[in-house]
Specification:
Elements: E1 4-9, H1 13-25, E2 32-35, E3 45-49, H2 54-67, H3 69-79, H4 86-98, H5 111-133, E4 137-138, E5 144-148, H6 155-165, E6 171-175, E7 180-184, E8 189-192, H7 212-227, H8 236-242
Parallel strand pairs: 1-2, 1-3, 5-6
Antiparallel strand pairs: 4-5, 6-7, 7-8
Length: 257
């Protein structure tokens, strides 16, 4: 009876790349790579726990880079999609990439290439939306705070944008869906985990966490937003396409009671 090999990793990107290295080392044609936290093994499945090894991860990364620069972005973005089965698909994609018959990262006639590109595109679009829709609120601790709830794990992708744009402020962007955030302290960006009792949506009801001046600023912004809106040109359907409703609860211009 044939058994299938499942490689279990810690959930990190370096952990995943280490699992890819082990799969290549063991000459596995198919490798079911799964996160430890979401492990689902079959009755006749052989399981091996993979411990993250930076050297092995870097060897895989350098190998990918030497083959294709565009594939690097596709692999990382697709990994951050967190979609079920993505790791196994990426393993297949990387095997093709390392093969002599690989036609390129834009060969959409290849099913694996097409699916990875589609996932990478979705994650890239979510990245740009987060960069546009993040709304900071000034806390009494003099830290600008923002909640986000993206479909994909895009915090690692938006860090550079906000560090460059708000280099003169302390800020935290917190992913309430994944329960971790990034914190900037004028020098570097660090990963943080907070014990949030409340998710701070943009409501008319004031919170004691934020300064009174923050609410005054939001009122000014909302009045400006309303005064510049031309009612005859309002297109609700188009507006929702550009600003999906799932983001509204974190936008100050969409305050609710």
């Amino acid at each position: 009876m044939n058994t299938q090999k499942t490689l279990v990793y810690d959930g990190s990107f370096n952990g995943f790349l280490t699992a890819v290295f082990i799969g290549f080392e063991q000459k596995l044609i198919h490798a079911d790579i799964q996160k430890q936290s979401k492990l689902q093994s079959g009755l006749f499945t052989e399981t091996e726990t993979i411990f993250t090894n930076i050297d092995k991860a870097q060897r895989v990364w350098k190998g990918v880079r030497n083959k294709s620069n565009s594939a690097i972005k596709n692999i990382y973005f697709a990994f951050l999609s967190e979609q079920k089965g993505t790791e196994a698909l990426l393993y297949r994609y990387i095997r093709k990439l390392m093969g002599s018959k690989f036609l390129g990262a834009t060969d959409f006639s290849d099913d694996a290439v097409l699916k990875i590109n589609q996932l990478a595109h979705k994650v890239g679009r979510e990245k740009h939306r987060m960069e546009a829709f993040v709304r900071f609120q000034l806390t009494k601790d003099d830290v600008y705070f923002a909640n986000i709830e993206p479909d994909y794990d895009v915090l690692p992708l938006i860090s550079k944008h906000f560090r460059n744009r708000y280099a003169d402020q302390h800020w935290i962007i917190y992913d309430v869906k994944r329960n971790y955030g990034i914190y900037y302290d004028f020098k570097s960006v660090e990963i943080v985990s907070l014990d949030l009792k409340d998710i701070y949506t943009n409501k008319t009801v004031k919170s004691e966490v934020f300064t009174e001046g923050e609410y005054e600023y939001q009122d000014l912004w909302n009045n400006y937003f309303k005064s510049t809106t031309i009612k005859s040109r309002i297109n609700p359907k188009l507006h929702v396409q550009h600003v999906p409703k799932r983001y509204w609860k974190y936008l100050s211009e969409k305050k609710v009671s």
